[in-house]
Amino acid sequence: MPRPQPPLPSRANRLFEARLLRSSLHPTELQLEPEAACLLVLAAGRVALESPAAAGQRRDGPEDEALSADAPRLAWLPPGAVRRIRLSAGARGALLRLGPVALARALPTGAMNTRLRGLLSQLRLLPLDPEVRDDMLRHLEVIDEESRAARGGTEVIVENLVSVLLVRLWRAAEVGGHSGALAPRSQLDRFVLLVARHGREHWSVGDYAGALGISRDRLGAVVRQATGLSPQGYLHREILADARDLLVNTPLQVAEIAFRLGFQDPAYFNRFFARHEKLSPGRFRRAARARQREDTTSFAAWP
């Protein structure tokens, strides 16, 4: 059973609150306040977002009534949109709570303000580039440190970092296909949610079009307009992002990763990965971990 964590506290005098999510041996749950917005950066593990309506219903399975996805992911949760966050064992990341005043102060001015206000009105669960993920986690660590100490200039630092995080969210939404006209965006949002649920079942493009009630050509036009990719290209990008994360951040064998991603034949997974990444999964893992060791050494050598 998931272990419930204390809710993010509701304090009238606190404009923001950051919480670093450490790896746990057990699944955990976080209760959210209905009046605050939250930004979640998931670095490892799996997340399920439970709406207030779903929270009151009986669930036959752990994710029947929740939107779920694997890391690396970026989630924006408008006030009241999500009642509970469920994290798998081993999940890591950070959660930022923003009261309405803090959010209003952090919003950039000009055209970006208009773009963000439209984006922030809806729940978002987006794929996240690993480099962007690491940058966002560093910003959230600074916000966490600033919130724990009474020092001059804290609000200035936090407001600017939150502004950067919001712009990062907007960029991730652009890359993930959450832009464009209202009607295509609605269809695309539903496609992205279906991919998050069924991507590892290797649905065909026709399966997704059928579930959306539109033609393959219409789905292709919507996805290509927003992302520059065909629907098949988008599906491959999502699978590859999950594969890279599992190779770099877990000790799973390549065959285990293949099965987890829905491949029945590990050899086919090897060929699929090598065709797109120009490296076999094993060589990719060794190269990525070598870069991680170099980065750790370079930081350790700083005065």
Write the layout of secondary structure elements.
Layout: E1 3-5, E2 16-21, E3 28-31, E4 37-44, E5 46-50, H1 52-55, E6 66-70, E7 73-77, E8 84-87, E9 92-98, H2 100-106, H3 111-120, E10 124-127, H4 130-148, H5 154-176, H6 182-198, H7 205-212, H8 216-227, H9 231-249, H10 254-260, H11 266-277, H12 281-300
Helix pairs in contact: 2-5, 3-5, 4-5, 6-8, 9-12, 10-11
Protein name: AraC family transcriptional regulator
Organism: Pseudooceanicola antarcticus
Domain HTH araC/xylS-type: 189-287
How would you sum up this structure, described in words?
Keywords: DNA-binding, Transcription, Transcription regulation. It holds the Pfam family HTH_18. This protein is of the alpha+beta class and 303 residues long. It folds into two domains: 3-55 and 65-176, Jelly Rolls (Sandwich); 182-290, Homeodomain-like (Arc Repressor Mutant, subunit A, Orthogonal Bundle). It contains twelve helices and ten strands. It has helices spanning 52-55, 100-106, 111-120, 130-148, 154-176, 182-198, 205-212, 216-227, 231-249, 254-260, 266-277, 281-300; strands at 3-5, 16-21, 28-31, 37-44, 46-50, 66-70, 73-77, 84-87, 92-98, 124-127. The strands form two sheets. The chain has a five-stranded mixed beta sheet with strand order 1-3-8-5-6. The protein has a five-stranded antiparallel beta sheet with strand order 2-9-4-7-10. Helix 3 crosses helix 5 (154-176). It is globular. The relative contact order is 0.10.
